[in-house]
Amino acid sequence: MNDSLRKAREYESGSHRTNACEPRPLFHLTAPVGWLNDPNGFSWYQGQYHLFYQYYPYDTKWGPVHWGHAVSTDLLHWTYLPAALAPGEEYDRDGCFSGSAITLKDGTHLLMYTGYVYDEDDPKHRGIQTQNIALGDGREYVKHSGNPVIRNEDIPDGGDPYDFRDPKIWMEEDGTLRAVIASGREDLGARILVFQSRDGLKWSYSHVLTENHLRFGRMWECPDYFELDGQEVLLVNAMDMNGEGTEFHSGNNGLYILGHWDPEKRSFQEQCVHTLDHGMDFYAGQTLTAPDGRRILIGWMQNPCTAYDHETDRSYFGQMSIPRELRICNGRLVQRPVREIERYRTDPVEYRNVQLQTESIQLDGISGRFLDMELTVRSADPNLDFERFEMRFAQNSDQYAQFIFIPKTKTACISRIHASTANDSLPQRQTELFEWNGNLSLRMILDTGSAEIFINDGETVFSMTLETASEANEITFISEGNLVLNVKTCKLDPTLR
Ligand code: FRU
User: Fold this and answer.
1) Whose CA is nearest to atom 9 of ligand 1?
2) Average of per-residue pLDDT across 447-473
3) For the CA atoms of 158, 160, 166, 170, what is the dihedral angle to 10 degrees?
4) Any idea what DSSP says for residue 471?
5) Fewer CB within a 10 Å sphere, N or C end of the chain?
6) Model confidence band, residue 15 (pLDDT cutoffs 50, 70, 90)
7) What is the rounded distance in angstroms from the CA atom of residue 142 to the CA atom of residue 128?
8) 37 CA to middle of ligand 1, Å?
9) What are residue 110's DSSP bridge partners?
């Protein structure tokens, strides 16, 4: 164990670092203390889910990143383990950047991550990035003596050593390993490279999976690549995007690309590209395959464009999303909260066929801040759309967050404009739904620091963090035009296990 890992473990285990009275989400992982960004090494190993994360324990701002570590049996309750990796070797002196995990045939848990070292000679003060391995048993991890296992010399022509990171590994049926790695090309944009290995320790370059030709941002980070329901899915996180219509938002955004690798043309034939989550806060998503075969996605529920400048009085900053089950339906990637959350539902309250005629109502018992809500809305007259539906939540007399839907333009919007903090430069987002067939269905998971809204069975998703007081728990429904509402809420209680 290097000194920096020992120091981090001592620091994080000091209970005086955290304030037991400060609010913490109940179902969203936060760091025990300090800063958290991307999920890393999300995997099932020896009977538990393991989730590592980009972690800087000493401050609530990003710093030389470590790998924090937590385990769970249900993806919702996480137990912290001591930090797994800390920077300190010559190849990762300034950070153990993002990466992934896999179980080798002999039962070893292998972590592959990007080592980061500032280049003193670079006028832009960027860092050299290489790929490295650590081997472990689910608790202790030893960095491999042969690191880096993928060096800058291994990047094919034109690859930028300052933008080469975030390996995501998988195992082929024949037991050999592959990894997709994000790679930048000076002024030419992003590429996703595939590397291969027999044993996980010696790696060689295989091919370019795809490139962005400066479409969708200047660089792609944290790729993931898998097969789902007979379809190939590529997830990327695009940096510095320009907005395009209501589908693509400016800034940094997770995207999903459906298509297939054509071995003859040696290229990825793209079918469609969409924003993975239209909310303000979802980035660097990573997936695993659960023992029962489900493909599960978890993301950093924060936006890099706002997170790095945030201010907080709390002892921690950053949280993960609710893990989501992925499926392909009607040519789209759909996301639904993992079914394990249903075990924590209690105190159901349900209303059916509530008629709203240009009015604002609250319903007895429909309130709360730790909630799983299902809602459907349709026009009262099938031949005449209502004009606007709004739901206010996390509401008190001063503040509220909003979900708004306008049938005429199929526009759905989430907003925390009326609940924002002083430095919130991104208080709302909107998109156009794929379709409006007269019925809107919505599921919302509300926790003390966030709302995640899954529309039309997870076809469109919005995630946002919230800073409103935990006591702000009212919910109001507002209509313009005549509509009919069905709503069911259950409280989410973490003690129900
Ligand atoms: C994405 C990212 C990764 C990198 C890590 C560093 O949020 O920039 O590309 O590995 O964060 O913390």
Assistant:
1) 221
2) 95
3) 20
4) T
5) C
6) low
7) 22
8) 8
9) 102, 135
Q: Which residue has the tokens 């993928």?
A: 150
The secondary structure of residue 304, as a DSSP letter, is H
Closest CA to 486 of 354, 357, 363, 347: 354
Cβ neighbours around 87 below 10 Å, total: 24
Pocket test for ligand 1, best of 118, 129, 222, 301 (most atoms within 8 A of CB): 222
**For 316-347, what is the HEC assignment?**
EECEECCCEEEEEECCEEEEEECHHHHHHEEE
Amino acid, res. 267: S
Q: Parallel, antiparallel, or unpaired: how do β-strands 251-262 and 267-275 relate?
A: antiparallel
- Quick: pLDDT tens for 125-165: 999 999 999 999 999 999 999 999 999 999 998 789 999 99
Nearest residue to 297 (alpha-carbon basis) of 249, 241, 240, 225: 225
Please give all residues whose beta carbon lies within 6 A of any atom in ligand 1, as ranges: 37-38, 54, 65, 97-98, 114, 165-166, 221-222, 283-284, 304
Q: What is the end-to-end Cα distance of the chain in Å, rounded?
A: 36
The distance from CA 338 to its chain's CA centroid, rounded to whole angstroms, is 14
Q: Which of 83, 77, 100 is nearest to 28 (CA)?
A: 77
Q: How far is the CA of 35 from the centre of ligand 1 (A)?
A: 13
Atom of ligand 1 nearest to the CA of 300: 7
d(CA 300, CA 282) in angstroms, rounded, equals: 6
1 — pLDDT class (breaks 50, 70, 90): confident
Closest listed residue to residue 126, CA positions, set 171, 101, 95, 150 = 95
CA distances for 79 relative to 16, 55, 265, angstroms = 18, 16, 47
Closest CA to 275 of 236, 219, 239: 236
User: Which two tokens mark 93?
Assistant: 């002196």
Mean pLDDT of 423-443: 93
Residue carrying structure tokens 């990003």? 62
Q: 97 alpha carbon to ligand 1 midpoint, in Å? A: 6
469: helix, coil or strand?
coil
DSSP-derived letter for residue 234 is: E
